[in-house]
Amino acid sequence: MAWTLVVPLKPLARAKSRLSGAAGDDLRPGLALAFALDTVTAALAAGLVRGVTVVTDDPLAGRELSALGARILPDPPGSGLNAALAHGARAVREERPGAAVAALNADLPALRPAELDQVLDVASGLPRAFLADAAGVGTTLLSAAPGSGLAPAFGGPSRARHRASGAREIELAGVDSVRRDVDTGEDLRAALALGVGPYTARRLRPAAPSGPEPGPVPASGARPPAPERPAARAEDSP
Q1: What would the pLDDT profile of 12-22 be if each residue is shown by its tens digit?
Q2: Which helix (H) or strand (E) element contains residue 59?
Q3: 124 DSSP 8-state letter
Q4: pLDDT for 90-118, tens place per residue?
Q5: CA–CA separation, 204 vs 176, rounded Å?
Q6: What's the pTM value of the predicted model, to 2 decimals?
Q7: Phi/psi at 168 (nearest 5 deg)?
Q8: CA triple 52-58-63, angle to 5 deg
Q9: Which helix (H) or strand (E) holds 187?
């Protein structure tokens, strides 16, 4: 089953507000964009992904993500995350009524294509399914196979809400990069330990001498199993 992913991204000036204390307001919008660029790059490299639709009203993000090969969809509802996801899924299925659709967070800078494929492979056998985030409280991916509605309920304790809605939880080991969303400095340190993609690594590297709260900034080195996305690991830091 080939999947179309719907990725929501709020205007960069308002994105990742919880990172302000760790990264500062000057760095935060650029980090939000870098996270999205790494997420979409990895998603497009996954074998089970047919395409990525990004729902955003941010012109810079739209240009940058479109250049990667993502479809950019404006967010006319302007009513928050779940309305944007529903709008994106609806747009995909207006073009292809039988499409398999999955919502994916835009803040997965350590995402690995092979791990995303593992999650989508399990989702292919279920009408609706979701993957909990690393904290075990939220959700990083929600899938809807052909014939099933997406019915997103992201935000806060969405794991419980998605389970209550009838979606099956994907319980799969070894897919840490798909679970590791980034909202705080601690989350960012954990993503760096996994190995972030090149956009996030490049965005963080200039800040290394000042030693921001997120901790060591990756330097170099490939992150298997996705050689097409050179990445850096925290342990490679000088």
Answers
A1: 988 877 776 66
A2: helix 59-68
A3: T
A4: 999 999 999 999 999 999 999 999 999 99
A5: 21
A6: 0.85
A7: -85, 135
A8: 60
A9: helix 185-194
